[in-house]
Design brief:
Number of domains: 2
Structural class: alpha+beta
Radius of gyration: 23 Å
Helix content: 40-55%
Number of helices: 4
Distance between the termini: 18 Å
Largest sheet: 3 strands, antiparallel
Strand content: 15-25%
Strand order of the largest sheet: 1-5-6
Order of helices and strands: HEEEEEEHHH
Shape: elongated
Length: about 140
C-alpha cells in the first residue's frame, strides 16, 4: 500500500468519525430542546445577569426547580426577567436548555441533524473508495 493512500484512508476515516460525533451531539441537543424524553422541569427564575464569556454577551438566568423533592438550582441561557417560570430540559452533558416546542423549532431540530449526517455519509463513502483504491495492485505490478 502506498503511503499517500494510507494517509488518505486514515484522514477520511477520522473525518467520518468527527462527522458521526457531530451528528450525535446535534441529535441529543435536539432531543433536549424539544423535550422528547419528557424530563423537563419548571424553573422560576430568581436571578438574571449578563455574562461576557464564550465569545459574546448573553444573559444567564438561574433559579430553583419548582415541585421538586430535592432543592436544586438550575442555570439556563435565557433573555428573560426575574420571577418568570420557564421549562428547561437537561442535556446529556449536564447543562439545562430551554424547551421550545413550536412548529419552527420542530422543523429546525428535525432537519438540522441531516447536515452532519450527510457529511458522515460522504466522508464514509470517500473512506471506502480510498480503502479500495489502496488495496488494488498498481497497474505496473500487473504488467510484469
Amino acid at each position: 500500500m502506498p503511503k499517500g493512500r494510507v494517509r488518505a484512508v486514515v484522514g477520511y476515516a477520522a473525518l467520518t468519525l468527527l462527522c458521526a460525533a457531530a451528528t450525535a451531539v446535534v441529535v441529543f441537543y435536539g432531543i433536549a430542546k424539544l423535550n422528547l424524553l419528557g424530563n423537563a422541569v419548571e424553573v422560576r427564575l430568581a436571578e438574571c445577569h449578563q455574562d461576557e464569556g464564550k465569545g459574546g454577551s448573553y444573559t444567564v438566568c438561574s433559579g430553583p426547580v419548582e415541585n421538586s423533592t430535592n432543592a436544586r438550582t438550575v442555570e439556563v441561557s435565557y433573555k428573560g426577567h426575574e420571577g418568570e417560570t420557564v421549562r428547561a430540559a437537561r442535556t446529556p452533558w449536564g447543562s439545562y436548555e430551554l424547551v421550545d416546542t413550536g412548529f419552527v423549532s420542530w422543523g429546525i431540530w428535525i432537519l438540522f441533524p441531516m447536515l452532519p449526517l450527510f457529511g458522515t455519509a460522504g466522508a464514509g463513502a470517500l473512506t471506502v473508495r480510498e480503502f479500495h483504491r489502496a488495496r488494488q495492485p498498481a497497474a505496473s505490478d500487473e504488467v510484469s
